[in-house]
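User: Can you predict the 3D structure of IclR family transcriptional regulator? Sequence below.
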Amino acid sequence: MAQSSQLVGRLSRLLRAVAGGPSDGVTTSDVARETELPRATTHRLLESLAVEGLLDRDGATGRWFLGPELYVLGTRAASRFDVTREARGSVRRLAEATGESAFFSVRRGDETVVLLREDGAFPIRSFVLYEGARFPLGVVSAGLVVLAYLGDDEIDDYLRRADLTPQWSATHDAAAVRERIARTREAGWSVNPGLVVEGSWGMAAAVFDAAGAPRGALTLTGIESRFRPERQGELGRLLLDEAHRLSRALA
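Assistant: Sure. Here are the predicted structure tokens for IclR family transcriptional regulator:
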């Protein structure tokens, strides 16, 4: 049983690594590095997924892409899990009202995944977030606001087992994350002051399900000068209004 669970976990990590790669595909070495699996093991598992149609490999470049069978499975799952239809209007309105890039992300376990992006009219943008990007809870503004509205016991459990500092530096140790959680709860929205990429700021408001649990987040990102303290109140209220509207629609 343990071996079967381990294999499923490995295959899931491989699929996520390919999905999170650039539009021109990923190499076997890229996937091995991302998943921390031996290259030979990675290649064998990638080939097995390709046989099932879950992955596809370009014969000329050797790069890996998601396969056609995932599209078929995705369309079947969309009727139950697709929330982008309701969220698209909120993302578009935020982009139009602010000029910034707007996003909708959903929680998937210990991560947030970006599902939608809409760019506003302001010509300078941040490209930290993109559709399909995944970040651990507590890192980007979406992950921070989702984490902030979990129960205290769940937050404690997450911060005990998730060490964010190796990849995201000491600015993401447990004490620093807890401090940002407190500020988020006080304001109602989260702020990421360039902690992932210097000069690239983000703000987010949580979207809740019918039970009151944070299901995802609406986010605005841009350059630092567009997120000065005097403007954050305006942006925060816009985010909260749309997050409230979307929460009601999804519930």
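Strands lie at 55-57, 64-66, 101-108, 111-118, 134-136, 190-193, 200-208, 214-223. Residues 229-250 form the longest helix (22 residues).
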